[in-house]
Amino acid sequence: MTVAKNTICLWFDKDAEDAARFYAATFPDSEVTAVHRAPSDYPSGKKGDVLTVQFTVCGIPCLGLNGGPMFKQTEAFSFQIATDDQAETDRYWNAIVGNGGQESACGWCKDRWGLSWQITPRVLTEAMAAGGEEAKRAFEAMMEMTKIDVARIEAARRGD
């Protein structure tokens, strides 16, 4: 197994394996590739406890570290998942929020481990890239949403 040159390391209290398995079951091109157990006791665990989990989220290599409760996830880091339509947006949003997560604003939500996700329809990204009045209308529509409503973004793009 080749280890990526750059890997995102995510700190968990003790649930890195559960989180990684949830991500692998939820997102395409995602899998748990290795689970490593501690060779001896460490400050937040015992010999034999799951210490690290190697996994991918949509093809991005990650390492989950069970480091204990001292550090928490923040919105300063998030995964942004591009979606193609409302059904895909709903599927990911509902998987995260419906399994102990919580809604936020403008397409952001948190999973039950506190990791932030941006569930972002491509139509919104395209509207922002278009610039001008189209971007302004789409942005203003987005600012009123929790989960992104694709039809409302499309209407805003058109000026409806």
Quick description:
By secondary structure, the chain is of the alpha/beta class.
Strand order within the widest beta sheet: 1-4-3-2
Distance between the termini: 52 Å
- Overall body shape: elongated
Q: Please tally the helical runs, counting DSSP H or I stretches of 4 or more residues.
A: 5
Radius of gyration: 18 Å
Helix fraction, binned, reads 25-40%
Task: Please write the string of helix (H) and strand (E) elements.
Answer: EHEEEEHEEEHHH
By CATH, the architecture of the largest domain is named Roll
Mean pLDDT: 96
Strand content: 25-35%
Task: Determine and state the CATH class of the largest domain.
Answer: Alpha Beta
The major beta sheet can be summarized as: 4 strands, mixed
Low-confidence stretches: none
CATH superfamily of the largest domain: 2,3-Dihydroxybiphenyl 1,2-Dioxygenase, domain 1
Helix/strand/pairing class, anyone?
Answer: alpha/beta
How would you describe this structure to a colleague?
This protein is an alpha/beta fold and 160 residues long. The chain folds into two domains: 1-71, 2,3-Dihydroxybiphenyl 1,2-Dioxygenase, domain 1; 73-160, 2,3-Dihydroxybiphenyl 1,2-Dioxygenase, domain 1, CATH 3.10.180.10. It has helices at 16-26, 86-97, 122-130, 132-142, 150-158; strands at 8-12, 31-37, 50-57, 60-66, 78-83, 102-103, 108-110, 116-121. Strands 1-4-3-2 form a four-stranded mixed sheet, with helices on one face.
